[in-house]
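Protein in question kept underneath.
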Amino acid sequence: HAKFVYRQVLASPRLAGSVTAAAPQIVGKLAYVTAPDGRQIPVLASGQIPSRNDAVGAGAAVASGSWTDDAGDREWAEPTPFQIRNEIDHFHEPPAAAANDPSWAEWHYFNVLGADGAHWAFISYIVAGAVPTGRWGGRLLVTLHGRGAPAERFVADVPSSRVRFSTASADLAIGASTVTVLPNGDYRLHGVARGERDGAPLTLDLTVSPEPGAYFPGASVSSDSLVSGYVVPALRADASGTICVSGRCDRYAGVQAYHDHNWGTWRGVTWDWGAGRAGTLGVLYGRVDDERRTVVRPLFVYLTDAQGFLAVFRPSRVEYTGSRAITVNGTRVVVPGHAQMTDVRGDDTLRLTIDVQSAAGTDTRTPPVARGPARPYFLQMKGLLHVSGRVNGRAIAGTGTGFFETYR
């Protein structure tokens, strides 16, 4: 993540008082050049950005002509919001290890919270299946929650012939439903689906506007049994537009929103995850577990503020307490009422607590997921998020609404 370290750490406003200039460089890296006759010639390659080298007093001595930034240099150091979205939020071809794995899936996920805090929507644009062999397709899944009513699911499934994705762009089309990155870096969402219960028509038209600097550059995990990737282009965002069911519309104007992007193989995989706002802080935490492994990975907690990236913590676990019951396909499932994570890293400290206000469950043993993990019930929760601690010698604190996921 050299780009992220440069943009969000070394060249960030947070360090402007300490770092006058920074220059990314590659020096003496082994590379191979293919000659016209097919020979592979080893060479040592170096790379620099001219304007940044000049800024730190290490500009190249040019004997003739000029050496200035080109478009690639400018995009590397100071990308536009449009360029950042497509750089980190593009789609992927399954790697060789997962090329024919039917559990391969990749999706854009958005959540939108109504201004009253009493209703919300989960929106997923999903591509899934064995992509190289053609046995795959797309799905739009919208789940509406709140206002004292049971969650409503709306779905549109389409064959691969009507799906369009790009490994160079975040744009996605699943039949008539689309995600489009606008020139200013906002996301334009359009969706058409029908209710699973009664066939009611749903249409959505939303613009999601990410806050500058409030993004997570991505992480990936790969092993013999697991391929998993994750990026958050919009940890904090605002959403405006409409979601309509049978002609009745909920209208949103600058409400809380979030967007992430996931890809990988998901058989026997579970996770703990959460994201939300806590005052001026953006909060993200997560961990992916492969049930075929005996080692449990620590979590990560990632914080942003108005200046972008703030800190990373690594709690060893989520402590779930309390209990309440929900019914999933006729089965009573116990869900947590509270959760807590703590960590100390040098002089920095973190305490993160969650009060669960609402929970819904899905049995992942049923089609079209049918993943069959040992903990089969996938829980999606909404609640209050509380953060306190110290970072870089300063106290941090905040409270706000977030969304959280785990398995039971």
The radius of gyration is 23 Å. Residues 2-10 form the longest helix (9 residues).
